[in-house]
Backbone:
């Protein structure tokens, strides 16, 4: 990318480390969200009981889906927040251009996605451990209960890609909304309309399924990376002409 | 070398021209005061220089480059005003150490010394500072960063008189230690005139004048006496301001009297007095020669 100067990369690097310390609150909010999700997942496990004569059977389902769901929501909000005026202005108190500001945000988002993917998978493992020690009957069945290290790593990798995708979408939507006040109302309305249209017409959201139904990890990676690049490039183009109004 | 060169610079907001066909240059390592009334375009101009705003027309170069969105310009300047924003999670000391990473000439000794001198608690959060204390803190960043171009936009907002005096002194001492180009916008020209080398006076987005402060001190002269006494002297001079006090009239005119004429004025019983620089600026930028008095006297 030749339109980015060497000094811009240097400034972005400084901004990235600045943001890591300045926005440590993002990490704290992630851990809180995951803790809440963990409590819900454990307390909200589905229980089914059957009793026949002297035999009674209770089946409990536990799922880590909520953990990852909460992490996705967190990722979207954080990414959108980074595009808001306050956060942009923080950059311009020190050395910054629009490009270095965006580059450092992208680096921060990648870091947050990585931490989010590792912690959400680890919290899933923690949930398994808690269930193991707190259920009095030792019969645990589940095709996903035991995770081999390669499975865990693949899970983290896929989670990272999903988080990056959601972050990039949040970042682009945030950048679009910053263009004009009307868009704050308009963009969510349009998105909501699109989602309900897809759901009523097709019973599914096709542009979500485009990613979720992909069976090959390689293809999934390519799809996500190209979407992320497009989203970030869009956000960069939109914000590159913005004036700093503080 | 000129740090800032600007010709025909215009910035339009809707139908209003905040900066209108402005041309000037600012030389390296000078302290320039940017003076003007509210809405004269000071902040807009400074933000264009800082690369925050895009110009609408004309030409501007800062360190020979268009400042908008330019990293090479951004690295060499700092823009200090009362709306500098910092992440709320950071304490003052953390903001200072972060700033040090961005500015290669950062002077930690001065930053820590000033923080201590102005009794700012290093663990305090920026958003809990009072207006004056926030301005003081921002000023510390401006001083310690030692940027080749340092811009202060109304830096003394909310500061009390004692802190303002200290600030001016600190600015001058630091400038002597490490000369650089400084632009200072202010309403309080009388407070900063001893600090300045040049004054750039804006009126309605345009340049009214740009002069060394020493020349501005002699730019105008006040005449007071009976109206008929100086009628003969003021035929072809530019009256900047006039005021009637009983039967004595006070007028301020451009000081381009020859020495002999000055003698004649002295002998005719008209008193000649110097005019303070901030008064000169007020008169030059007034919409009306009679000032606010005219509004009240119109019915008479």
Residues:
């Amino acid at each position: 990318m030749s339109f980015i100067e060497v000094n811009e990369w240097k400034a972005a690097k400084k901004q990235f480390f600045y943001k890591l310390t300045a926005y440590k609150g993002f990490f704290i909010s992630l851990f809180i969200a995951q803790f809440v999700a963990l409590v819900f997942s454990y307390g909200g496990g589905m229980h089914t009981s059957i009793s026949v004569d002297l035999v009674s059977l209770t089946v409990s389902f536990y799922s880590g889906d909520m953990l990852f769901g909460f992490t996705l929501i967190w990722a979207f909000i954080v990414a959108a927040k980074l595009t808001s005026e306050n956060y942009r202005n923080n950059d311009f108190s020190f050395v910054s251009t629009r490009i270095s500001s965006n580059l450092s945000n992208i680096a921060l988002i990648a870091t947050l996605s990585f931490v989010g993917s590792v912690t959400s998978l680890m919290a899933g493992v923690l949930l398994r451990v808690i269930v193991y020690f707190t259920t009095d009957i030792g019969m645990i069945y589940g095709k996903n209960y035991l995770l081999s290290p390669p499975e865990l790593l693949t899970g983290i990798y896929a989670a990272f890609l999903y988080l990056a995708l959601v972050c990039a979408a949040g970042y682009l939507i945030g950048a679009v909304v910053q263009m004009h006040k009307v868009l704050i109302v308009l963009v969510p309305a349009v998105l909501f309309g699109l989602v309900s249209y897809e759901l009523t017409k097709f019973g599914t959201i096709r542009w979500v399924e485009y990613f979720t139904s992909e069976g090959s990890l390689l293809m999934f990676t390519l799809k996500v990376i190209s979407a992320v690049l497009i989203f970030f490039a869009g956000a960069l183009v939109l914000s590159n002409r913005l004036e700093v109004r503080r | 070398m000129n740090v800032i060169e600007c010709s025909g610079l215009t910035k339009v907001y809707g139908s209003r021209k905040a900066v209108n066909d402005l041309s000037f240059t600012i030389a390296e390592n000078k302290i320039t005061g940017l003076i003007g009334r509210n809405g004269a375009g000071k902040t807009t101009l400074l933000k264009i220089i800082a690369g925050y705003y895009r110009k609408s027309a004309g030409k501007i170069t800062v360190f020979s480059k268009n400042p908008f969105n330019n990293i090479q310009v951004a690295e060499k300047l700092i823009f200090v005003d009362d709306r500098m924003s910092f992440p709320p999670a950071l304490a003052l000391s953390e903001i200072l150490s972060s700033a040090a990473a961005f500015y290669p000439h950062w002077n930690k000794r001065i930053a820590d010394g000033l923080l201590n001198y102005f009794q700012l608690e290093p663990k305090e959060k920026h958003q809990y500072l009072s207006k004056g204390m926030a301005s003081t803190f921002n000023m510390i960043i401006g001083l310690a960063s030692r940027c080749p171009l340092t811009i202060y936009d109304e830096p003394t907002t909310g500061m009390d008189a004692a802190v303002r005096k200290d600030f001016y002194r600190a600015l001058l001492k630091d400038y002597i230690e490490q000369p650089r180009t400084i632009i200072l916008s202010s309403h309080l020209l009388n407070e900063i005139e001893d600090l300045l080398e040049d004054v750039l006076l804006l009126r309605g987005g345009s340049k009214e004048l740009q002069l060394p402060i020493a020349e501005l001190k002699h730019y105008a002269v006040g005449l007071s006496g009976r109206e008929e006494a100086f009628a003969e002297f003021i035929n072809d001079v530019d009256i900047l301001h006039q005021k009637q006090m009983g039967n004595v009239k006070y007028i301020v005119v451009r000081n381009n009297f020859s020495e002999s004429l000055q003698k004649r004025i002295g002998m005719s019983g008209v008193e000649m007095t110097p005019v303070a620089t901030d008064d000169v600026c007020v008169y030059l930028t007034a919409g009306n020669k009679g000032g606010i008095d005219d509004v009240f006297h119109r019915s008479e």
User: Anything to note?
Assistant: DSSP finds twelve helices and 13 strands in chain B. The mean pLDDT of chain B is 90. Chain B touches chain A at residues 47, 51-54, 69-72, 74-75, 78, 81, 83-87, 89-90, 94, 98-99, 101-103 (CB under 8 Å). Chain B has two domains: 2-216, 220-297.
